[in-house]
Amino acid sequence: MSQLWAEFAVSSMLAVLCVVIHGLGLFSLSHALRGETAVERLKQIAPLSPRGVAFTLGIVVSILALHGLEIWLFAFVYTGLGAVTGLEDALYFSTISYSTVGYSDIHIAPQWRLLGAFESILGMVLIGWSTAFFFRMLGRMEAH
User: Which terminus of the chain has fewer Cβ atoms in its 10 Å neighbourhood, N or C?
Assistant: First the structure.
C-alpha cells in the first residue's frame, strides 16, 4: 500500500510541475505577442503570407518544445526511479504515454504503471490546452 501512495505522490507532483511549466511557457509566448504594437501588427498579417506562415510555425515549434520538455521530464523520472531501464526506452514510453497512443505498459515496472497513466491524462489535457492556445493566437491575425 505504501508503494501506491509513493506512486500517487510522484505522479501528482509531476502533473503539477508539468502544468506549471506548460502554463509559464504559454504565458511567456502570449506575453511576447501582446502589447498594442504586437496586437496591431498581428491584425495586419495575412494568414497565408510568408509572415503569417512564419508566425504560425513559430507558435507550433514553441508549443512542441513545451511538450518535448514535459516528455523528457517524465523520461528522466522513469529512469531515475528505475521504472524503465535505459533512457531510450524511458523516452519511448514517455512519448507514447504522453501522446495517449499507449501501445502497452510492458516497458514500465509494474509498481510504477500509475505514473504512465497519469502522464497519459496529463498529455491529453496539455495537448488540449495547447490546441486552444494555438487557435486563439491564430485568431489574432486578420482574416482576409
Answer: N
Do 78 and 90 touch, CB atoms closer than 8 A? yes
Distance CA 108, CA 112 (A): 7
Measuring CA to CA, how many Å separate 45 from each of 39, 53, 61, 62, 79? 10, 10, 19, 19, 45
Provide the 8-state DSSP code for 142.
P
Between CA 76 and CA 22 the distance in angstroms is 17
Question: Whole-angstrom Cα distance, residue 6 to residue 28?
Answer: 33
DSSP 83: S
Domains of the chain: 2-138 (1.10.287)
d(CA 45, CA 68): 29
Taking only the tens place, the pLDDT of each residue in 67-117 is 999 999 999 999 999 999 999 999 999 999 999 887 777 889 999 999 999
| Residue owning grid cell 529512469 | 79
pTM over 0.85: yes
CA distance 83 to 123: 19
